[in-house]
Write a structure and sequence with these properties.
The complex is a heterodimer of chains A (347) and B (169). Chain A is 27% helix and 25% strand. By secondary structure, chain A is of the alpha+beta class. A 12-stranded mixed beta sheet of chain A has the order 7-8-11-12-13-1-2-3-4-5-6-14. In chain A, strands 9-10 form a two-stranded antiparallel ribbon. In chain A, β9 and β10 form a beta hairpin. The relative contact order of chain A is 0.20. Chain B contains 4 helices and 9 strands, in the order βαββαββαββββα. In chain B, strands 1, 2, 3, 4, 5, 6, 7, 8 and 9 form a 9-stranded mixed beta sheet that branches. The longest helix of chain B is centred in the first third of the chain and has 10 residues. The chains are: A alpha+beta (347), B alpha+beta (169). The interface between A and B is medium-sized, with 24 and 29 residues.
């Protein structure tokens, strides 16, 4: 009798495991998408950081709604710039005059009086240069080109990752879980935080083909990316990303016959990514950015108000900045704070 | 009422939710000649400095068959003589399932030349898309839907939209 009970138990376990498998993945993707959508519908404050080893960037900001938001940018702990967007108006204050070039599409197009005001650390307000209502579909913005844009579009980025990588609910008792390969903090025991992990894909082999069989398949971000999303009460409170090349060095060495034996780990990563990015550039693909990214949210749904500055303000033409509407001729690059996708096509 | 301009009629025709293609609505819907105007005083005479005037669109909609709308008015918003925007206010008839997401998506997908994108403005969800040299914003107010079309080069489309969201039909 006892033996029979064990057989039944084992059979039930296997059966429930099988039936849960396919549905579970779809459900988890839906859970993550729902958490993103719920978070986007609420006002919030955020801190975005990107650690590139030699360089780190931080963007701290607040979002009242999709047309009203503000951001302050730091690089290597140096305060560079503040921006406030309120409907059609944009206000900018530079804290580090030498940094102006990195935020401009074209400094040559900048009115001298506006440049002078910015370099003297005054707030400059342009009443009609805020980002366009619509982001042109053919505009591709490279990560790192505009940290404010990157910070405002983290959820778009996560949605893209959702299409590229498998996602699982964190379970430290899972047979798949390897604590030594987990760079992210675990939710505290009995906490109300759920964590979802994105799993890096299998590295392509040197003989694999892509692009309709024309090009060599080359590793991409999704082959190195570890990402975790933390959700509390149905809203996203944190996103962490680690582009982990170190953990893939053995696979790279084996798949691509890389000669990196005897070099230290940092140098090996540098050599590997340099080689991969050369091929990617040759194929017209975006480059791999080895980074650690963190995006934290707070005051979700709180009373977040974004107002234009009133003191020490001068009017100016800011359309030469990357984050403006480019209404005077060029195409729009900057988005609203929203990352909500288009509505579903009706059946 | 002013006779409608070509940009205004183009916006309206693209935005009307006709019942064509739905298999079970034969005999239902409101024909164009039965569609009545919205209350004339819904909008103030000026909106963000633009003069507001109701357009005469009766000729344009007269030939429409089986629509889900029983009242509509198209307002022009001009600076001097230049048409900067139009605002269409329409009321669903009793055949419309105006609260359902499927019905709304079906309507939204008839508007503009690109898939609508949802943005949150205060407590409102607004759906943005683009038309020929214009930006289109659509939102719902109970049994009404509103469509604001602004010229591509109008400098303050978001401020105008924010003001238009204050309108309560």
């Amino acid at each position: 009798m006892k033996g029979r009970a064990v057989v039944v138990t084992v059979a039930m376990l296997v059966a429930s495991g099988l039936s849960a498998c396919g549905e579970r993945d779809r459900g988890i993707v839906a859970d993550v998408e729902a958490a993103i959508a719920k978070t986007e519908r609420q006002s919030r404050r955020f801190l975005y950081t990107e650690d590139l080893g030699q360089r780190n960037v931080a963007v701290r900001g607040a979002i009242e709604d999709d047309f009203r938001f503000e951001a302050a940018v730091q690089e290597n702990n140096l305060f560079l710039l503040e921006q406030v967007i309120r409907d059609d108006a944009i206000a900018t204050r530079l804290q580090e005059p030498d940094a102006l070039g990195s935020f401009a599409s074209s400094l040559a197009a900048a009115p001298p009086e506006t440049v002078e005001a910015l370099k003297s650390k005054k707030w400059v307000v342009d009443s009609i240069a805020a980002p366009s209502l619509l982001l042109a579909g053919n505009v591709q913005v490279v990560t790192g080109d505009d940290p404010v844009y990157d910070a405002l579009t983290v959820f778009n980025y996560v949605r893209q990752v959702l299409r590229q990588q498998d996602v699982r609910k964190f379970d430290e008792n899972s047979l798949d879980y390897r604590p030594k390969e987990d760079p992210f903090p675990k939710p505290k025991e009995s906490s109300d935080v759920d964590r979802y992990d994105f799993v890096p894909g299998r590295l392509p082999r040197s003989t694999d083909l892509a692009g309709g069989g024309v090009n060599q398949a080359v590793p991409a971000m999704q082959h190195f990316r570890k990402m975790a999303i933390y959700v509390r009460n149905g809203s996203v409170i944190r996103v962490l990303e680690d582009i982990d090349v170190v953990g893939r060095l053995d696979d790279l060495r084996r798949n691509y016959d890389l000669n990196i034996d005897g070099t230290d780990t940092d140098r090996a990563v540098e050599v590997a990514i340099l080689g991969i990015n050369e091929v990617r550039q040759g194929q017209g693909l975006d480059l791999i950015r080895v980074r650690k990214m963190s995006f934290g949210l707070k005051d979700i749904g709180g009373d977040v108000k974004v107002d234009l500055p009133e003191d020490d303000v001068v009017a100016g033409d800011l359309s030469f900045l990357k984050s403006t509407t480019k209404r005077r001729g060029a195409k729009s690059q900057a988005p609203t704070a929203s990352t909500v996708p288009p509505v579903e096509t009706a059946p | 009422m002013r006779k409608t301009s070509s940009i205004a009629s183009a916006v309206l025709i693209a935005s009307m939710l006709t019942a064509c293609g739905s298999p079970d609505i034969s005999g239902k819907g409101t024909v164009g000649k039965d569609i009545v105007p919205i209350a004339a005083d819904l909008l103030p005479p000026e909106l963000l400095g633009l003069s507001v005037q109701a357009e005469d669109i009766s000729g344009t909609i007269a030939s429409e068959q089986q629509t889900y709308v029983d009242a509509t008015t198209l307002y022009s918003l001009r600076s001097e003589d230049l048409l900067q925007a139009t605002l269409q206010v329409s009321r669903f008839n009793s055949d419309a399932d105006g609260d359902s997401a499927k019905f709304r998506n079906s309507l939204l997908n008839q508007i503009g030349g690109s898939r609508p994108r949802s943005v949150r403005l205060g407590k409102d969800n607004v759906f943005l898309t683009s038309g020929t040299k214009q930006q289109l914003a659509t939102w719902f107010r109970g049994e009404y839907f509103l469509i604001l079309a602004t010229r591509e080069d109008y400098p303050m489309p978001k401020s105008l939209l924010r003001r238009a969201l204050e309108i309560q039909p």
